[in-house]
Amino acid sequence: MKRRLKNPATGDPLSLRLRPPAGQPFSLPLSELAKAVPFAEYTGAGGRCNLAAGCAPPRLTCAYGMSRTETAGTFALHCQPADLAVLLAHVAAPEDALEQQKAAAFAALERASVDPGVLRSIAVDSRLPGALWHVFRPADAAKLRRFLAAGAENGGGNPLAEQTGTYVGPAELDRLRLKCGLRPAVIVQFQGDTVFVPAGAPYQVRNLHSGISLSVDFVSQESCRQCLATGREMRQHNRLPLRRLLYRAVRDAVSVLESTV
Prior knowledge:
Elements: E1 17-18, H1 31-34, H2 40-43, E2 59-63, E3 75-78, E4 83-92, H3 98-111, H4 116-125, E5 129-135, H5 141-151, H6 159-162, H7 170-180, E6 185-190, E7 194-197, E8 203-207, E9 210-218, H8 224-234, H9 242-260
Antiparallel strand pairs: 1-2, 2-9, 3-8, 4-7, 4-9, 5-6, 5-8
């Protein structure tokens, strides 16, 4: 912990995230690690139920823990026009501040009102929580956009598409619940866990301890309509050529049908 870069204004350790730019993955052999992501028929590069098979390489993210802050996250609240699977491959806490970091993470989870069974598991089994997720339903996106735009200095654009850095803390989550009736699913991710996020579902992530995760974009048949709708809203932020993928899927299906006749 003492070797981490410090915020010159507060003296607190900086929370950093290392991730390659879109379309430029790390030059690491991720194919073997990607095999650990469940439901390969959907998430795999050659999955039969993945309409984006071979078009979206896996992405590796390395991030420091942020258990001591509630107003910033590893990933700000946003949504994407594809289904997402995120495998947390490794979690670690700094040896020179292990107990303090674990205590801060536990306190953060208590304030986040996570399931009591999860808290008991952490306390009794000494499990190390990796990340705290808030995942909304795709149907909540419109209300969330209005909520974020109302509180932004510049109300233009789509705050969920632009990833403007808005992390919704506990106070804002309470306002969302009371004012808009929106309540996200609260997920605690441990090492080895995979979190699935459907296309168009707004979500945010805060690493409680430092970790390495693998993200895989895929397009399931069930989410195809939602992918297209969210892609239209996001426009330039869309990484996947969804219409081209849909055309290719229909073409392949017709080819299979013709070969069986």
